[in-house]
Amino acid sequence: MSYTALYRNFRPLKFSDMVGQDHITRTLRNQVISNRVGHAYLFNGGRGTGKTTSAKILARVVNCLNPQDGEPCNECEICKEILEGSLTDVVEMDAASNNSVEDIRSIRDEVNFLPTKAKYRVYIIDEVHMLSTGAFNALLKTLEEPPEHVKFILATTEPQKLPTTILSRCQRFDFKKIPDDDIIKRLKIICSEANIKIDDDALKVIAVLSEGHMRDAISILERCSQENVENIKVEEVKELVGLPKLEYISRLAKSIIEYNVIEALEVIDDVINDGKDLYNYLWEVVKYFKDILVYKATSNLKLYSEEELNEIKNLSDKTEETRLLNIIYELSDLENDLKWSSQKTIMFQIGIIKACRKAQVSSEKLEIPVEVKQIEKTQKPEKKEPISNNIKPPASSTTTTSNNTDSAWKKVIDVLKRNGKIRLYTALINTRINEVNDLIWEVEFPNGLTSFNQKILEDVNNKNELIKEILKITGKEVHLRYKDLKNVSQAKENRPSSPISDLGIDINIID
Ligand SMILES: [Zn+2]
């Protein structure tokens, strides 16, 4: 584990310098003041939440020659030697690398001797859950009958891995994730002492990114401060942790919302020229649209500056919730298509053009819901017309399916409906089967296979469900293939034209 210079230099020296763990530091100080310090502690909590810092402060204050108000003076001979790491009575041990029985036995032998200089021998054992079983047993013996002059402070991120016999002999303190505001408070102190200039918005982003771990927050701050900029801004923080420039993301979102195809394609060019990965970029764009949606519902978002929030508010005001949802669905589909495509740039451009256009012709989006409405109708008891009345699959010239297979397939689809597998059922409406051989069934989609439905059909659980039902009805364990007939014929018609003229999906057969 590497500690940053900032983290070392600005490790709190007193309980009162720590942030976000008041419930713990208050209790520990009170114990010191009232002379009720226990002989074994377990500090539990995520990395960078202050476990080791607290352990070190506690080790000093119990030995300090001049403690004040439950805090070490950090000035006396003992405090200074502990701070320098030269006092042998305070032992820090990382159980991740010293986890053998011998390591713990050496402690057991040692504890019988009086401390050389300080009042107590203090053992701080980090990552204590890493000890071997034998080492735990050895430790337990010491914890059972500890000499008066010994204190143990065990720290762990995974208390569930500790034997209950150990747990029951320790006072346990659970360190919480540190709230963003407390992280910001501490970062501000460090910045002012280390003479680092940084915007408040940038601090906020660091706090959010650190997810409650002070060490991570300080490490991000330190890396930013090495970038040789006079004043650290949000952009530098995001660039450093690898978030794509928000400008690219919000520009594309704005173009889609405003149906501005030309601007959208320009942003994509900029992103490509900047060498950014399109797949990651799209992921961020989808996330951004989700954030706009969240903002619409809650007016609350983290990770954005005031200025960025204004832009999000602006975009949110311009768009209906249903349209935002449609865009998110569509871009998620594109994300999926992109994964399989060898021509990512073209696919991406086509997908974005579609997102800009489809939004204009909103009735197009109704295509699928019409089918869904039909299902809903048939599910109501007062209307008992069978679904097959509404669906007349076009006759196929290629199909070699026997009547038996045909009716078996209908049964399978019916069972899916009855079992409430509505998404899977919807995806298979209007399909028919081409029985390639005894082992392979090809599901044909005469009206095309949307990538939304493709995703449903590729889902492992759904696929297994389908195969299971076929097995029940036909007694055959078949392998399924999906064939998009619409795009096969379209592709043939459009072969000489550019892919942009064909806004369909370029996957014909999915195995
Ligand atoms: Zn002292």
What does this structure look like?
The protein is of the alpha/beta class and 511 residues long. The protein folds into 4 domains: 5-175, Rossmann fold (3-Layer(aba) Sandwich); 180-241, Helicase, Ruva Protein, domain 3, CATH 1.10.8.60; 246-360, Zinc Finger, Delta Prime, domain 3; 378-510, no CATH class. It has 23 helices and 9 strands. The strands form 2 sheets. Strands 2-3-4-1-5 form a 5-stranded parallel beta sheet, covered by helices on one side. It has a 4-stranded mixed beta sheet with strand order 6-7-8-9. Helix 6 (133-144) links the parallel strand 3 (121-126) and strand 4 (150-156). Helix 14 (278-298) packs across helix 15, helix 16 (321-340) packs antiparallel against helix 17 and helix 19 (403-418) packs across helix 22 (460-474). The radius of gyration is 32 Å and the shape is flat. Zinc ion (ZN) binds at residues 64-66, 72-76, 78-79.
SSE blueprint:
Layout: H1 5-9, H2 22-33, E1 40-45, H3 51-61, H4 77-84, E2 90-94, H5 101-110, E3 121-126, H6 133-144, E4 150-156, H7 164-167, E5 171-175, H8 180-194, H9 200-210, H10 214-225, H11 234-241, H12 246-257, H13 261-273, H14 278-298, H15 306-318, H16 321-340, H17 344-360, H18 367-379, H19 403-418, H20 422-428, E6 432-435, E7 440-445, H21 451-458, H22 460-474, E8 479-484, H23 485-493, E9 509-510
Parallel strand pairs: 1-4, 1-5, 2-3, 3-4, 7-8
Antiparallel strand pairs: 6-7, 8-9
Helix pairs in contact: 5-6, 8-9, 9-10, 9-11, 10-11, 12-13, 12-14, 12-15, 13-17, 14-15, 14-16, 16-17, 19-20, 19-22, 20-21
Bound molecules: zinc ion (ZN).
